[in-house]
Design goal:
Blueprint (H helix, E strand, L loop, with lengths): L3 H8 L5 E2 L2 H10 L3 E6 L11 H12 L3 E6 L21 H18 L10 E4 L1 H4 L4 H7 L6 H4 L3 H8 L6 H4 L1 H16 L1 E7 L3 H15 L4 E5 L12 E2 L2 E2 L9 H9 L6 H8 L4 H10 L3 H17 L1 H16 L9 E4 L1 H6 L1 E2 H7 L6 H9 L3 E3 L2 E2 L6 E2 L8 E6 L3 E7 L1
Parallel strand pairs: 2-3, 2-5, 3-4, 5-6, 9-15
Antiparallel strand pairs: 1-6, 7-8, 10-13, 11-12, 11-14, 14-15
Helix pairs in contact: 10-11, 12-15, 12-16, 13-15, 15-16
Length: 412
Protein backbone atom coordinates (compact mmCIF):
# COMPACT_ATOMS: atom_id res chain seq x y z
CA UNK A 1 0.00 0.00 0.00
CA UNK A 2 1.68 3.21 -1.20
CA UNK A 3 -0.83 5.83 -0.08
CA UNK A 4 -0.18 6.97 3.49
CA UNK A 5 -3.84 7.27 4.47
CA UNK A 6 -4.81 3.81 3.23
CA UNK A 7 -1.59 2.33 4.55
CA UNK A 8 -2.36 3.50 8.06
CA UNK A 9 -5.95 2.33 7.62
CA UNK A 10 -4.59 -1.13 6.85
CA UNK A 11 -1.99 -1.09 9.64
CA UNK A 12 -4.66 -0.25 12.20
CA UNK A 13 -6.98 -2.97 10.93
CA UNK A 14 -9.62 -0.52 9.69
CA UNK A 15 -10.09 -2.06 6.23
CA UNK A 16 -12.44 -4.97 5.59
CA UNK A 17 -13.43 -4.53 1.92
CA UNK A 18 -13.01 -1.89 -0.76
CA UNK A 19 -14.56 -1.60 -4.20
CA UNK A 20 -11.19 -0.66 -5.76
CA UNK A 21 -8.38 -0.09 -3.28
CA UNK A 22 -5.71 0.52 -5.92
CA UNK A 23 -7.63 3.25 -7.76
CA UNK A 24 -8.71 4.86 -4.50
CA UNK A 25 -5.05 4.99 -3.45
CA UNK A 26 -4.09 6.67 -6.73
CA UNK A 27 -6.72 9.37 -6.22
CA UNK A 28 -5.69 9.95 -2.59
CA UNK A 29 -2.09 10.38 -3.75
CA UNK A 30 -3.08 13.07 -6.23
CA UNK A 31 -5.42 15.19 -4.13
CA UNK A 32 -7.37 15.63 -0.94
CA UNK A 33 -10.70 13.80 -1.13
CA UNK A 34 -14.04 13.99 0.65
CA UNK A 35 -15.52 10.84 2.14
CA UNK A 36 -18.62 10.27 4.23
CA UNK A 37 -20.00 8.01 6.91
CA UNK A 38 -23.67 7.95 7.83
CA UNK A 39 -24.94 7.71 11.40
CA UNK A 40 -28.39 6.77 12.63
CA UNK A 41 -30.13 9.19 14.95
CA UNK A 42 -32.31 6.72 16.83
CA UNK A 43 -31.00 7.84 20.26
CA UNK A 44 -29.67 11.02 21.84
CA UNK A 45 -26.14 9.57 21.80
CA UNK A 46 -24.07 7.19 19.73
CA UNK A 47 -22.47 4.33 21.65
CA UNK A 48 -18.96 2.96 21.53
CA UNK A 49 -19.95 0.61 18.68
CA UNK A 50 -19.87 3.71 16.42
CA UNK A 51 -16.47 4.86 17.67
CA UNK A 52 -14.41 3.01 15.05
CA UNK A 53 -16.18 4.94 12.30
CA UNK A 54 -15.47 8.25 14.05
CA UNK A 55 -11.80 7.28 14.44
CA UNK A 56 -11.66 6.66 10.68
CA UNK A 57 -13.01 10.18 10.05
CA UNK A 58 -10.33 11.48 12.43
CA UNK A 59 -7.67 9.55 10.50
CA UNK A 60 -8.93 11.08 7.24
CA UNK A 61 -8.28 14.51 8.74
CA UNK A 62 -4.78 13.51 9.84
CA UNK A 63 -3.92 12.72 6.22
CA UNK A 64 -5.44 15.90 4.80
CA UNK A 65 -8.81 14.56 3.65
CA UNK A 66 -12.20 16.09 4.44
CA UNK A 67 -14.80 14.04 6.30
CA UNK A 68 -18.52 14.42 5.74
CA UNK A 69 -20.69 13.40 8.68
CA UNK A 70 -24.13 12.39 7.44
CA UNK A 71 -26.67 12.49 10.25
CA UNK A 72 -29.58 10.47 8.96
CA UNK A 73 -32.55 12.62 9.81
CA UNK A 74 -34.31 11.24 6.74
CA UNK A 75 -33.28 7.58 6.83
CA UNK A 76 -33.91 7.38 10.60
CA UNK A 77 -37.57 8.00 9.73
CA UNK A 78 -37.39 4.63 7.91
CA UNK A 79 -34.89 2.54 9.90
CA UNK A 80 -31.93 0.54 8.63
CA UNK A 81 -32.77 -3.21 8.61
CA UNK A 82 -29.06 -4.19 8.51
CA UNK A 83 -28.22 -6.47 11.41
CA UNK A 84 -31.69 -6.09 12.92
CA UNK A 85 -34.13 -8.88 13.77
CA UNK A 86 -37.16 -6.61 13.84
CA UNK A 87 -38.40 -3.20 12.75
CA UNK A 88 -36.93 -0.31 14.74
CA UNK A 89 -39.11 2.01 16.75
CA UNK A 90 -40.37 4.75 14.44
CA UNK A 91 -39.41 8.23 15.67
CA UNK A 92 -41.01 11.51 14.68
CA UNK A 93 -39.06 14.41 13.17
CA UNK A 94 -39.03 16.39 16.42
CA UNK A 95 -37.37 13.52 18.32
CA UNK A 96 -34.83 13.02 15.54
CA UNK A 97 -33.89 16.72 15.49
CA UNK A 98 -33.20 16.61 19.24
CA UNK A 99 -31.08 13.48 18.78
CA UNK A 100 -29.05 15.09 15.98
CA UNK A 101 -28.31 18.15 18.11
CA UNK A 102 -27.12 15.92 20.96
CA UNK A 103 -25.08 13.55 18.77
CA UNK A 104 -23.18 16.42 17.11
CA UNK A 105 -21.52 17.24 20.44
CA UNK A 106 -19.36 14.11 20.20
CA UNK A 107 -18.13 14.86 16.68
CA UNK A 108 -17.24 18.39 17.73
CA UNK A 109 -15.19 16.97 20.60
CA UNK A 110 -13.34 14.24 18.68
CA UNK A 111 -12.84 15.75 15.22
CA UNK A 112 -10.73 18.77 14.27
CA UNK A 113 -13.21 21.57 13.65
CA UNK A 114 -10.73 24.47 13.61
CA UNK A 115 -8.74 23.68 10.43
CA UNK A 116 -10.92 24.73 7.49
CA UNK A 117 -9.13 22.41 5.09
CA UNK A 118 -10.17 19.27 6.95
CA UNK A 119 -13.03 20.50 9.20
CA UNK A 120 -16.00 18.13 8.93
CA UNK A 121 -19.07 18.98 6.89
CA UNK A 122 -22.32 18.03 8.66
CA UNK A 123 -25.23 17.09 6.44
CA UNK A 124 -28.72 15.84 7.21
CA UNK A 125 -30.27 13.65 4.52
CA UNK A 126 -33.73 14.85 5.55
CA UNK A 127 -32.83 17.98 3.54
CA UNK A 128 -33.28 16.04 0.30
CA UNK A 129 -35.10 12.80 1.17
CA UNK A 130 -38.16 14.52 2.66
CA UNK A 131 -38.56 16.61 -0.50
CA UNK A 132 -38.59 13.75 -3.00
CA UNK A 133 -41.49 13.31 -5.39
CA UNK A 134 -42.34 9.61 -5.10
CA UNK A 135 -43.27 8.99 -8.74
CA UNK A 136 -40.30 10.98 -10.03
CA UNK A 137 -37.97 9.17 -7.60
CA UNK A 138 -39.20 5.78 -8.80
CA UNK A 139 -38.63 6.78 -12.42
CA UNK A 140 -35.22 8.44 -11.97
CA UNK A 141 -33.69 6.25 -9.26
CA UNK A 142 -35.84 3.18 -8.58
CA UNK A 143 -35.46 2.09 -12.19
CA UNK A 144 -31.74 1.39 -11.55
CA UNK A 145 -32.47 -1.28 -8.91
CA UNK A 146 -33.70 -4.83 -9.45
CA UNK A 147 -35.64 -6.81 -6.86
CA UNK A 148 -33.50 -9.83 -7.78
CA UNK A 149 -30.32 -8.10 -6.64
CA UNK A 150 -31.90 -6.43 -3.60
CA UNK A 151 -32.99 -9.84 -2.31
CA UNK A 152 -29.36 -11.03 -2.29
CA UNK A 153 -28.17 -8.45 0.25
CA UNK A 154 -27.70 -9.71 3.80
CA UNK A 155 -29.90 -7.01 5.35
CA UNK A 156 -32.85 -8.49 3.42
CA UNK A 157 -31.82 -12.12 2.94
CA UNK A 158 -31.13 -12.89 6.60
CA UNK A 159 -34.46 -11.47 7.76
CA UNK A 160 -36.34 -13.51 5.15
CA UNK A 161 -34.38 -16.69 5.89
CA UNK A 162 -35.27 -16.38 9.58
CA UNK A 163 -38.90 -15.77 8.57
CA UNK A 164 -38.87 -12.42 10.35
CA UNK A 165 -41.04 -9.73 8.85
CA UNK A 166 -39.42 -7.02 6.74
CA UNK A 167 -41.65 -4.07 5.93
CA UNK A 168 -41.74 -2.49 2.50
CA UNK A 169 -40.66 0.71 4.24
CA UNK A 170 -37.40 -0.94 5.43
CA UNK A 171 -36.91 -2.65 2.08
CA UNK A 172 -36.56 0.82 0.54
CA UNK A 173 -33.75 1.80 2.92
CA UNK A 174 -30.93 0.63 0.65
CA UNK A 175 -32.25 2.72 -2.25
CA UNK A 176 -32.36 5.82 -0.03
CA UNK A 177 -28.80 5.24 1.19
CA UNK A 178 -27.58 4.84 -2.38
CA UNK A 179 -29.34 8.10 -3.24
CA UNK A 180 -27.54 9.80 -0.34
CA UNK A 181 -24.17 8.87 -1.87
CA UNK A 182 -25.34 10.13 -5.26
CA UNK A 183 -26.43 13.46 -3.72
CA UNK A 184 -23.14 13.93 -1.86
CA UNK A 185 -21.10 13.00 -4.94
CA UNK A 186 -23.02 15.51 -7.05
CA UNK A 187 -23.14 18.38 -4.53
CA UNK A 188 -20.07 17.88 -2.32
CA UNK A 189 -17.67 16.08 -4.67
CA UNK A 190 -17.73 13.15 -2.23
CA UNK A 191 -16.01 10.17 -3.87
CA UNK A 192 -15.91 7.73 -0.95
CA UNK A 193 -18.45 6.14 1.37
CA UNK A 194 -17.24 4.26 4.45
CA UNK A 195 -19.28 2.04 6.74
CA UNK A 196 -19.26 -1.13 8.79
CA UNK A 197 -19.05 -4.45 6.96
CA UNK A 198 -22.82 -4.93 7.34
CA UNK A 199 -23.23 -1.87 5.07
CA UNK A 200 -21.35 -3.39 2.11
CA UNK A 201 -24.46 -4.03 0.01
CA UNK A 202 -25.86 -0.54 0.64
CA UNK A 203 -22.49 1.05 -0.21
CA UNK A 204 -22.07 -0.93 -3.45
CA UNK A 205 -25.58 0.19 -4.45
CA UNK A 206 -24.47 3.82 -4.13
CA UNK A 207 -21.32 3.24 -6.20
CA UNK A 208 -23.43 1.56 -8.89
CA UNK A 209 -26.09 4.29 -8.85
CA UNK A 210 -23.48 7.03 -9.42
CA UNK A 211 -21.99 5.07 -12.31
CA UNK A 212 -25.40 4.45 -13.89
CA UNK A 213 -26.79 7.98 -13.48
CA UNK A 214 -23.76 10.14 -14.27
CA UNK A 215 -21.09 7.69 -15.52
CA UNK A 216 -18.61 8.65 -12.79
CA UNK A 217 -16.44 6.51 -10.51
CA UNK A 218 -17.04 6.49 -6.77
CA UNK A 219 -15.60 4.16 -4.14
CA UNK A 220 -16.83 2.22 -1.15
CA UNK A 221 -14.87 0.93 1.82
CA UNK A 222 -15.97 -1.04 4.86
CA UNK A 223 -14.39 -1.57 8.24
CA UNK A 224 -14.73 -4.82 10.19
CA UNK A 225 -17.59 -5.21 12.63
CA UNK A 226 -16.00 -5.47 16.05
CA UNK A 227 -16.73 -8.35 18.35
CA UNK A 228 -14.91 -8.81 21.62
CA UNK A 229 -12.60 -11.78 22.18
CA UNK A 230 -15.34 -13.12 24.46
CA UNK A 231 -17.70 -13.18 21.46
CA UNK A 232 -19.90 -10.36 22.79
CA UNK A 233 -20.90 -7.39 20.64
CA UNK A 234 -18.83 -4.22 21.00
CA UNK A 235 -20.61 -1.47 22.89
CA UNK A 236 -22.92 -3.60 25.02
CA UNK A 237 -22.36 -4.71 28.61
CA UNK A 238 -24.50 -6.34 31.25
CA UNK A 239 -25.47 -2.86 32.45
CA UNK A 240 -26.34 -1.49 29.01
CA UNK A 241 -24.75 0.56 26.24
CA UNK A 242 -21.45 2.43 26.53
CA UNK A 243 -22.70 5.84 25.44
CA UNK A 244 -20.38 8.52 24.05
CA UNK A 245 -22.29 11.52 25.42
CA UNK A 246 -21.01 12.49 28.86
CA UNK A 247 -24.48 13.07 30.32
CA UNK A 248 -25.42 9.44 29.55
CA UNK A 249 -22.11 7.81 30.57
CA UNK A 250 -19.56 9.49 32.81
CA UNK A 251 -15.86 9.92 31.87
CA UNK A 252 -14.96 7.74 34.86
CA UNK A 253 -17.23 4.89 33.71
CA UNK A 254 -15.88 5.31 30.18
CA UNK A 255 -12.30 5.04 31.48
CA UNK A 256 -13.26 1.95 33.46
CA UNK A 257 -14.82 0.34 30.37
CA UNK A 258 -11.49 0.50 28.55
CA UNK A 259 -9.51 -0.44 31.66
CA UNK A 260 -11.55 -3.65 31.87
CA UNK A 261 -10.76 -4.71 28.30
CA UNK A 262 -10.13 -8.43 27.81
CA UNK A 263 -6.37 -9.17 27.65
CA UNK A 264 -6.81 -10.58 24.13
CA UNK A 265 -8.33 -7.33 22.82
CA UNK A 266 -5.82 -4.81 24.21
CA UNK A 267 -3.41 -4.51 21.25
CA UNK A 268 -6.23 -4.48 18.70
CA UNK A 269 -8.08 -1.77 20.61
CA UNK A 270 -4.95 0.36 21.04
CA UNK A 271 -4.70 0.36 17.24
CA UNK A 272 -8.42 1.01 16.78
CA UNK A 273 -9.17 3.59 19.44
CA UNK A 274 -6.01 5.61 20.12
CA UNK A 275 -3.77 7.86 18.04
CA UNK A 276 -0.56 6.10 19.05
CA UNK A 277 1.34 5.26 15.85
CA UNK A 278 1.18 1.55 14.92
CA UNK A 279 4.99 1.23 14.88
CA UNK A 280 5.21 2.86 18.29
CA UNK A 281 2.61 0.40 19.57
CA UNK A 282 4.75 -2.50 18.33
CA UNK A 283 7.68 -1.12 20.34
CA UNK A 284 5.51 -0.60 23.42
CA UNK A 285 4.32 -4.21 23.31
CA UNK A 286 7.89 -5.47 23.04
CA UNK A 287 8.99 -3.49 26.09
CA UNK A 288 5.91 -3.57 28.33
CA UNK A 289 4.98 -7.05 29.56
CA UNK A 290 2.49 -6.00 32.22
CA UNK A 291 -0.91 -6.22 30.53
CA UNK A 292 -2.52 -4.04 33.22
CA UNK A 293 -0.20 -1.16 32.36
CA UNK A 294 -1.24 -1.54 28.71
CA UNK A 295 -4.90 -1.47 29.70
CA UNK A 296 -4.32 1.75 31.64
CA UNK A 297 -2.60 3.20 28.56
CA UNK A 298 -5.64 2.24 26.45
CA UNK A 299 -8.06 3.72 28.99
CA UNK A 300 -6.08 6.96 29.26
CA UNK A 301 -5.69 7.48 25.51
CA UNK A 302 -9.25 6.51 24.56
CA UNK A 303 -10.74 8.71 27.30
CA UNK A 304 -8.48 11.62 26.34
CA UNK A 305 -9.78 11.54 22.75
CA UNK A 306 -13.42 11.77 23.83
CA UNK A 307 -13.36 13.68 27.12
CA UNK A 308 -9.99 15.46 27.12
CA UNK A 309 -6.68 14.97 28.92
CA UNK A 310 -7.84 16.40 32.26
CA UNK A 311 -10.87 14.08 32.50
CA UNK A 312 -8.66 11.12 31.58
CA UNK A 313 -6.11 11.93 34.30
CA UNK A 314 -8.89 12.50 36.84
CA UNK A 315 -10.47 9.12 36.02
CA UNK A 316 -7.13 7.34 36.43
CA UNK A 317 -6.51 9.04 39.79
CA UNK A 318 -10.03 8.19 40.97
CA UNK A 319 -9.54 4.54 40.02
CA UNK A 320 -6.14 4.41 41.74
CA UNK A 321 -7.54 5.91 44.93
CA UNK A 322 -10.54 3.58 44.92
CA UNK A 323 -8.84 0.30 44.02
CA UNK A 324 -5.34 0.61 45.44
CA UNK A 325 -5.99 2.45 48.71
CA UNK A 326 -9.64 1.56 49.28
CA UNK A 327 -10.48 5.20 49.95
CA UNK A 328 -13.75 6.84 48.96
CA UNK A 329 -12.90 9.09 46.05
CA UNK A 330 -15.27 12.01 45.69
CA UNK A 331 -14.90 11.77 41.90
CA UNK A 332 -16.73 8.44 41.65
CA UNK A 333 -20.03 8.42 39.71
CA UNK A 334 -22.84 9.75 41.88
CA UNK A 335 -26.39 8.62 42.58
CA UNK A 336 -28.24 11.55 44.11
CA UNK A 337 -31.05 11.01 46.59
CA UNK A 338 -33.23 13.37 48.57
CA UNK A 339 -33.07 13.58 52.34
CA UNK A 340 -36.82 12.87 52.49
CA UNK A 341 -36.24 9.59 50.61
CA UNK A 342 -33.43 8.57 52.96
CA UNK A 343 -35.54 9.28 56.06
CA UNK A 344 -38.20 6.89 54.73
CA UNK A 345 -35.52 4.35 53.80
CA UNK A 346 -34.36 3.43 50.29
CA UNK A 347 -34.83 -0.12 49.05
CA UNK A 348 -31.46 -1.22 47.64
CA UNK A 349 -32.92 -3.37 44.86
CA UNK A 350 -35.15 -0.50 43.70
CA UNK A 351 -32.10 1.81 43.70
CA UNK A 352 -30.03 -0.67 41.63
CA UNK A 353 -32.76 -1.11 39.01
CA UNK A 354 -33.77 2.57 38.86
CA UNK A 355 -30.17 3.69 38.21
CA UNK A 356 -29.49 0.83 35.76
CA UNK A 357 -26.57 -0.55 37.74
CA UNK A 358 -28.17 -3.81 36.65
CA UNK A 359 -30.99 -4.15 34.17
CA UNK A 360 -33.64 -5.69 36.41
CA UNK A 361 -34.62 -6.35 40.00
CA UNK A 362 -34.23 -10.10 39.51
CA UNK A 363 -30.61 -9.57 38.40
CA UNK A 364 -30.06 -7.41 41.47
CA UNK A 365 -31.45 -10.13 43.77
CA UNK A 366 -29.17 -12.75 42.21
CA UNK A 367 -26.14 -10.46 42.54
CA UNK A 368 -26.89 -9.79 46.22
CA UNK A 369 -27.36 -13.50 46.96
CA UNK A 370 -23.95 -14.12 45.35
CA UNK A 371 -22.35 -11.39 47.49
CA UNK A 372 -21.97 -9.09 44.50
CA UNK A 373 -22.78 -5.82 46.30
CA UNK A 374 -21.10 -3.96 49.14
CA UNK A 375 -22.18 -0.90 51.09
CA UNK A 376 -19.27 1.04 52.58
CA UNK A 377 -17.04 -1.97 51.73
CA UNK A 378 -19.23 -4.43 53.67
CA UNK A 379 -21.05 -7.23 51.82
CA UNK A 380 -24.81 -6.93 51.53
CA UNK A 381 -26.33 -10.26 52.53
CA UNK A 382 -30.00 -9.26 52.80
CA UNK A 383 -31.79 -8.76 49.48
CA UNK A 384 -34.38 -6.69 51.38
CA UNK A 385 -31.70 -4.26 52.53
CA UNK A 386 -32.98 -0.74 53.20
CA UNK A 387 -30.43 2.09 53.09
CA UNK A 388 -31.02 4.30 56.13
CA UNK A 389 -29.73 7.66 57.27
CA UNK A 390 -27.33 5.92 59.70
CA UNK A 391 -25.53 4.30 56.70
CA UNK A 392 -24.42 7.75 55.49
CA UNK A 393 -21.17 9.42 56.53
CA UNK A 394 -20.94 13.10 55.58
CA UNK A 395 -24.07 12.57 53.44
CA UNK A 396 -22.34 9.82 51.41
CA UNK A 397 -22.68 6.03 51.08
CA UNK A 398 -20.27 4.04 48.92
CA UNK A 399 -22.03 1.35 46.86
CA UNK A 400 -19.86 -1.25 45.11
CA UNK A 401 -20.87 -3.85 42.52
CA UNK A 402 -18.13 -6.44 42.14
CA UNK A 403 -14.55 -5.23 42.20
CA UNK A 404 -14.81 -2.69 39.41
CA UNK A 405 -18.05 -0.72 39.76
CA UNK A 406 -18.26 1.89 42.53
CA UNK A 407 -20.77 4.67 43.13
CA UNK A 408 -21.38 7.39 45.68
CA UNK A 409 -24.94 7.69 46.94
CA UNK A 410 -25.13 11.33 47.95
CA UNK A 411 -27.86 13.17 49.84
CA UNK A 412 -28.79 16.43 48.08
Amino acid sequence: MKNNFLQEMEERGYINQCTDLEKLGEICDKKSISGYIGFDCTASSLHVGSLLQIMILKLMQKHGHKPIVLLGGGTTLIGDPSGKDSTRKILNQSEIKKNIKSIKKVFNKILNTSDKKVAPIFVNNADWLTKLNYIQFLRDTGSHFTINKMLTFDSVKLRLEREQSLSYMEFNYMILQAYDFYQLFKNNNCVLQIGGSDQWGNIVNGVDLIRRKIQKDAYGLTSPLITLASGAKMGKTETGAIWLNEEKFSPYDYWQFWRNTDDRDVKRFLNFFTEIEPKELDSIFKEEKNINNLKILLANEATKILHGKLASQKAEQTAKKTFETGDISLDLPEIKVKLSEVKKGINLIDLIAKNKILQSKSEARRAISNKGFKINDNFVIDEKKIILLKDFKNNIVKLSYGKKKHYLIRII
